[in-house]
Amino acid sequence: MIANALRSTLGDALWRHSLRRHRSNMGWRQAPQYERYLARCRANFQGDLPDIGDLDQAVREFQQQGVTSFRTPETIAIAEGIRRKLEEREQSGQGAWGARTTESDDDTYVGDLWQDFPEVHDLLKGPLCAFLSHYYRCPPKFYYGLCYRSLRRSDRPSGSQLWHSDSGPGICTNVMVYLSDVGPDDGPLQVLPWDDSLPMFLRQRAIMRQRLRDAGERLDKLAQREILCSYYEEAIESGPKERVRTMTGPIGTVVPFFNNSLHRGGFPQAGHTRRALVLHCYPSHLPTDWSIYDKEGLKKRGSYPHDPSEPF
Predict the structure, then answer these.
(1) How far apart are CA 296 and CA 114, in angstroms?
(2) Which CATH number does 2-296 carry?
């Protein structure tokens, strides 16, 4: 009993240290390698960063809060182009949407984003590359990209529609791009800034141990996740609720946010739909190799790269 208590105390201390230092709840064994890789990327980079244009304020806000948004004439044209092609596929009977994801009621695009939408090239090589390059202070690379359609199909949210963290590397930047106007009824992304998410993570392990003991039975992963999401919901409602960022915006709005910040979205009101791109982005120690996406597209190959230096 004493040995178990000591192990829990030590484990919790290492967990908290890793959270504060690496901005990740992957744990102290895994999280540091990604920070080391970012340092390597910055040390390797030579030359000039791309022109930031009017995005410097968005970069500063992102550095401070872990969430921001921007919209430019270029992102509007890109999103409008993708929207038109999606609508053409829907109306022609080709079919744009496949099976729902296991995480929520979202539909996923069935094609290849990179091959089907040259606009995605323009986004990644243009405004998003500029934003990420100035944030990382080195070139970016893109682990995967997905396109979702969110509809109201159930009475209560589930999966990614509930408060959660993606629990990936602290250097991962999630980016959502709205392909439709997203107002309060359209299931907008909501993000709790990192400085407000962190205290909840620091308390999480001890609280979850107690709640699982209180449950009095062995629970599967889905039941455990429901308990964790309930903890987040209660903690936000009783604490920093007013600091939640609700990221509404018209088509072409780009929303970068920290992978590990608490977030939720995609639960629209009845009769409303949200279409969006989602990208997971990383720093690169080499110039961005666009030929990789020409060959492999942006398909999802896992939740995160186990070796951040691998080519993708």
Answers:
(1) 9
(2) 2.60.120.620
